[in-house]
Write a structure and sequence with these properties.
Length: 215
């Protein structure tokens, strides 16, 4: 009974409410929703099966190429804002920076292991960049620049994403040896770990030189 009471107290507290909210909002599969609304397709049954912008682009290019890029961009923005908005609301309620970073982490977890998709989901890149941008905007911008350049040159989305995410992590140590307010890189490293974990199939295909290009 004590354990149950403790769980109830946690999830009815302000922090607990925001943690649950971050996970649930992070789990909203915008790519899947937009694919059905604008393209009439289930993107989980085509391409890589991912709910991210890359698979949205790849799938809709086959069914409705005129809107493919626009819907992919909409998906990317929506995924990026999922965690960002919850963090900004948490800031309004004066939650601690430690709590805000936990919200960031849980938003990425929600996207990658969505409660609405039997704990499957996307790769977490857009959501990860979105939440990191709240705390480390320079690193996030640099990561996006690297992602864009690598993607444009090599035209391999997964490789561009992984290099961009890795660059964010490296630059965070260069520009902020101690992350402001929390003085640890632990939450950022955990976010990066989840993103790389979700990319394991892509990494294997990259080594096998079988990873698809975005044309």
């Amino acid at each position: 009974m004590v354990i149950i009471a403790g769980i109830i107290d946690f999830f009815t507290s302000l922090n607990g409410f925001f943690y649950l909210l971050a996970y649930l909002v992070g789990g909203i599969p915008f790519g899947l929703i937009y694919g059905k609304i604008f393209g009439g397709v289930n993107i989980r049954e085509t391409g890589s099966g991912s709910i991210g912008a890359t698979n949205v682009l790849r799938t809709l290019k086959k069914t409705n190429p005129k809107i493919a890029k626009k819907v992919a961009i909409l998906t990317m923005i929506s995924d990026a804002l999922k965690g960002t908005l919850v963090i900004l609301i948490a800031k309004f309620f004066n939650l601690t920076y430690e709590a805000q970073w936990m919200i960031a982490f849980l938003a990425v977890v929600g996207h990658c292991f969505s409660p609405f998709l039997k704990f499957e989901g996307g790769k977490g890149v857009a959501t990860g960049v979105g939440v990191v941008a709240v705390f480390l905007p320079i690193e996030a911008i640099l990561g996006l620049v690297v992602w864009g350049l690598v993607g444009k040159i090599l035209k391999i989305s997964s490789l561009a994403s992984l290099i961009g995410v890795l660059f964010v992590g490296i630059m965070s140590f260069v520009l902020h040896p101690e992350i402001p307010h929390i003085h640890t890189h632990a939450p950022l490293i955990l976010i990066m770990f989840i993103i790389f974990y979700k990319h394991i199939p892509n990494i294997i295909r990259l080594f096998q030189r079988k990873e698809q290009k975005i044309l």
